Amino acid sequence: MPIHDWTRAEAGDFHHFHQTWIPLLAAALNGGGLPPGFIALAEQVTGRPIPDVVTLESRSPSGGAGGVAVAPAPPPSARWIQKIERINYAKRADRVVIRHGRGRVVAIIEILSPGNKDSRHALRSFVEKAADILSQGIHLVVVDLFPPSPRDPQGIHKAIWDELTDEPFEFPPDKPLTVASYIGGDLPTAYVESVGVGDPLPAVPLFLTEYDYVPCPLDSTYAQAWAVFPALLKDIVDPHV
Question: From CA 114, how far away is CA 119, in angstroms rounded?
């Protein structure tokens, strides 16, 4: 499914699409995308801001992480892979939420809306939240289907990464949208893809541990959400529909 030009839509239109997409993502993860013992919940509060999809790690009745087995996966690939080589003691933050059962949060999927970048304060809040999540050792997927603004001229990944390191990063101008997957912890690693309108959403890893991950079903659930998006609004976002 090609990514649509969401700059044609009003903020409320994308909000509706966003609110359709989020539960579909959680349903796909809960319907076989996650290994036993993990659950994905939409719009769980994990600290300050509200997440989109949360992955939780379950606990056994005794309180331990009972019987969770995630098969080792080969290292994922991406156009850019960046890793922090020094510890950064930045302050801590939080979104679908993935937990190990009803226990600790292990991963978060965050889909940006126009409101996340419509002011310096809004962008700063999001970036600090993302850096805080990673500092807590929680893994993160960020999807930004809007081009860079004057407040994030090199895209949302660069804005997040600047909280952690001074390492340079620049997207090609013809691929201004961002899909990034992060391993959280003292030395975060980022798997970053740049995409443009008309491209499919890339298959990025959703990390459950530092080494284990499952595919994040972005493209298939985006297509499901688009299928039920109102026809009148489809005509605005994609005049060729």
Answer: 10
